[in-house]
């Protein structure tokens, strides 16, 4: 397989890009918009991609910067009005732990509440399976930074849904 | 021995430096039930995080998204590439009249040579595979997690990442053509038929595919004509194919006509005029009139070729 058309390469990555963008934005429609904008950007600057590096991690980086630059502020304005509702949901702590185990939505919400830099690393490594090295290269940060962001994200996840009380089953 | 979360997570992710580092972790695990419990929680919640997004990975990609990418102009291909944002005005405007001769079919000046071919194997995600990690981990993850489940999750951790969760290799477009009447199985060709606007040229595996035009089929459904040739532009071996799909909602594209290429039984060889004549004769009998215009074609792509 040596497809050389950027468009074909990107299309074959779409499932992974959509998943990453969904984790990043928390909204399926915004995620698909973001993926489309990111892919068009990538095609324009295809010459910047180094073929010996992971296309996926390069794309994740483009999606993240596009999100930060073009989308997030707009999105924030829209969702601010909903923040009361969100807090009300976050209040049902008792059942939350129990339900979270079986409820993908709950897991996604915990991930959605992580600081963005942690969320990005979690999506790239834990969910997508990139290596630490690829992730560090894509984000332009040292590996140690990737590891500490990941550890904080994983610890938060473990606290929220790991079910400490019955952990000794 | 003090093993922190960073190290434990790196162990789970198969990202430790070397065998000595794995041994250190395993010695510590052997000595500490608390550490084993922590490993279990981390493994389990990592798996939950992955599962929380599984559905997204498996869900069908919206055809509009594929079409928007497929119709984006390549850099330098045409002026206006810089401003190519909305798919709406990207590439859909050029529904070609069907060129009568092969010279016009050869992408000559307007198309860039695309990127230099890169190494064939570029795994999306590589992770140093640590031999036996899965088996070793399974031993540590007992209890409610269940050895089998633990093993499965670890296999996902180690192998899922290695293989990538999803692979749709844009296989060689040159895949031996199916016989007339067979469904189009080559994923790259099937995807292009489904989502690429006419006029888009795709290079893959040394082959160049161009979707030429779309037609309403006389018996309902639609047909699309495409050409396959080599990217080097060498004249030999060009194939013309016509794939059609019935009006059924879940219909596949099926090969309805094929001529040219290596080993063409009809002996058209490389005589492009004769290839096109044969294709035109087929179209004359099986489709209804003129090619679809760009707007109509775009609407159909968006609906997955289902009639309105």
How would you sum up this structure in a few lines?
The complex is a heterodimer of chains A (169) and B (308). By secondary structure, chain A is mainly α.
How is this structure best described in words?
The complex is a heterodimer of chains A (169) and B (308). Chain A has helices at 6-25, 28-44, 55-80, 83-90, 93-100, 104-112, 116-127, 132-139, 143-161. Chain A has 169 residues and is an all-alpha fold. The radius of gyration of chain A is 17 Å and the shape is globular. Chain A has nine helices and no strands. Chain A folds into two domains: 1-81, Rna Polymerase Sigma Factor, Chain: A (Orthogonal Bundle); 83-160, Winged helix-like DNA-binding domain superfamily/Winged helix DNA-binding domain (Arc Repressor Mutant, subunit A, Orthogonal Bundle), CATH 1.10.10.10. With 308 residues, chain B is of the alpha+beta class. Chain B has two domains: 5-57 and 140-163, no CATH class; 63-113 and 170-302, no CATH class. Helix content of chain B is 38%, strand content 12%. Chain B has eleven helices and five strands, in the order H-H-H-H-H-H-H-H-H-E-E-E-E-E-H-H. A five-stranded antiparallel β-sheet of chain B has the order 1-2-3-4-5, sandwiched between helices. Chain B is elongated. At the A-B interface, helix 1, helix 2, helix 6, helix 7 and helix 9 of A face helix 1, helix 3, helix 4, helix 5 and helix 8 of B.
């Amino acid at each position: 397989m040596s497809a050389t058309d950027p468009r074909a390469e990107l299309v074959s990555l779409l499932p992974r890009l959509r998943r990453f963008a969904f984790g990043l934005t928390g909204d399926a429609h915004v995620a698909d918009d973001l993926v489309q904008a990111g892919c068009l950007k990538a095609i324009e600057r295809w010459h910047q991609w180094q073929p010996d590096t992971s296309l996926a991690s390069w794309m994740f980086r483009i999606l993240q910067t596009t999100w930060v630059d073009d989308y997030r502020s707009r999105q924030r304005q829209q969702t601010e009005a909903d923040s009361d509702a969100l807090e009300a949901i976050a209040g049902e702590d008792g059942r939350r732990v129990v339900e979270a185990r079986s409820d993908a939505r709950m897991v996604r919400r915990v991930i959605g509440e992580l600081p963005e830099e942690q969320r990005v690393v979690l999506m790239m490594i834990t969910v997508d399976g990139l290596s630490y090295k690829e992730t560090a290269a894509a984000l332009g940060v040292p590996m140690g930074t990737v590891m500490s962001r990941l550890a904080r994200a994983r610890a938060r996840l473990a606290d929220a849904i790991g079910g400490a009380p019955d952990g000794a089953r | 021995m003090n093993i922190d979360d960073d190290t434990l997570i790196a162990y789970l992710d198969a990202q430790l430096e070397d065998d000595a580092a794995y041994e250190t972790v395993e010695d510590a695990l052997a000595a500490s039930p608390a550490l084993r419990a922590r490993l279990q929680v981390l493994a389990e919640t990592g798996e939950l995080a992955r599962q929380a997004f599984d559905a997204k990975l498996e869900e069908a990609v919206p055809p509009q998204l594929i079409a928007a990418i497929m119709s984006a102009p390549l850099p330098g291909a045409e002026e206006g590439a810089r401003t190519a944002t909305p798919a709406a005005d990207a590439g859909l405007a050029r529904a070609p009249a069907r060129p009568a001769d092969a010279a016009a079919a050869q992408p000559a000046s307007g198309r860039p040579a695309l990127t230099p071919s890169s190494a064939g194997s570029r795994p999306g995600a590589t992770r140093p595979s640590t031999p036996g990690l899965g088996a070793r981990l399974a031993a540590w993850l007992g209890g409610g997690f269940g050895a089998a489940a633990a093993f499965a999750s670890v296999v996902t951790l180690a192998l899922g990442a290695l293989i990538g969760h999803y692979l749709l290799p844009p296989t060689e477009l040159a895949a031996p053509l199916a016989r007339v009447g067979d469904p189009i199985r080559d994923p790259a060709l099937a995807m292009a038929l489904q989502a690429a606007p006419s006029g888009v040229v795709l290079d893959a595996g040394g082959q160049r595919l161009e979707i030429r035009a779309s037609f309403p089929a006389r018996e309902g459904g639609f047909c699309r004509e495409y050409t396959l040739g080599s990217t080097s532009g060498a004249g030999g071996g060009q194939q013309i194919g016509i794939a059609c799909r019935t009006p059924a909602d879940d219909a596949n594209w099926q090969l309805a006509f094929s001529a040219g290429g290596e080993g063409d039984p009809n002996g058209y060889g490389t005589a492009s005029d004769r290839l096109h004549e044969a294709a035109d004769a087929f179209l004359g009998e099986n489709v209804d009139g003129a090619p679809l215009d760009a707007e109509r074609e775009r609407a159909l792509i968006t609906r997955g070729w289902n009639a309105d």
